[in-house]
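1st attempt posting a full record on here, be nice pls
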Amino acid sequence: MLIGTSPSGEMTPEQKAVHDAIASGPRGSVPLPFLAMLDSPVLCDAIQNVGEAIRYRTVMDDRLREIAICAAAAAWGSGYEWGQHDALAVKCGLSPAERAGVLDGSGAALAPAEAALVAYVFAAVRERRADQALLGRVAGAFGRNVATEVTAIAGYYPMLALFLSAGQLDSPLPDVP
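the predicted structure (as tokens):
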């Protein structure tokens, strides 16, 4: 492992402070991406704060947020992020057919506005640009706040997946649910 944390007994005081702050926050634990970035406690803290805002303080409802996060994970190819958020998507009531439509990027079985959101996230992650027509559909359906938050998700979760890859902590995507 070229980057990532040591067991907690071997952490620097700065690493341990950030680790413990994440563990005592709303996540209740320290997810793998943050372990992979703890070599830079300042960045880890800043990045986890963005994630905490995305997960716990956005205007999106839980269902829409998990669709967006799962789409970002699927578009990047992060099995770890997919697994973490697919479990939450199930709790939000997404059916197996809807989850399959997110995983393959087709948006199949989702409402048209949700399918547009999936298409926007896939385009943003894979093409590394914001497709204005798709973004317009997302903003038209859900509002500018949600369009902004979805754009943040499309950038944030691939960053986490890159840390997972660098720390050799990721896994392949599953087969379609």
